Amino acid sequence: MIRLANAERAKAGCAALSVDDKLMTAAQRHSQDQADHRNMSHTGSNGSSPGDRLGDVGYQWRTYGENVAWNQQSPEAVMTAWMNSPGHRANILNCSFTEIGVGVASSNGPYWTQVFAAPR
Asked: What is the pTM of this model?
């Protein structure tokens, strides 16, 4: 998924995103939370926002974005869906983001999460 996102960014003239372990943790936790509660949302089951979840893993962000999806069966399928959605596409092609984390939970889904950010 990261390779696919970076390929789309390259076409748009954006620098490649680097993987951040804290963002990976936040994305995976959110995917699992969505799967556990069978609810695709940017709001966690505990009421958390994407920014809250980044703080919970100790990531100090300057800016962030989040894409979520449900039931696409491959990274290619979910990236196609996101690139066909104006808001999701805008996150992927936002050149101000420098780092990425991704998560997928296969139970009840799969549930997908991409977290984009730039640190302080």
From this structure: 0.95
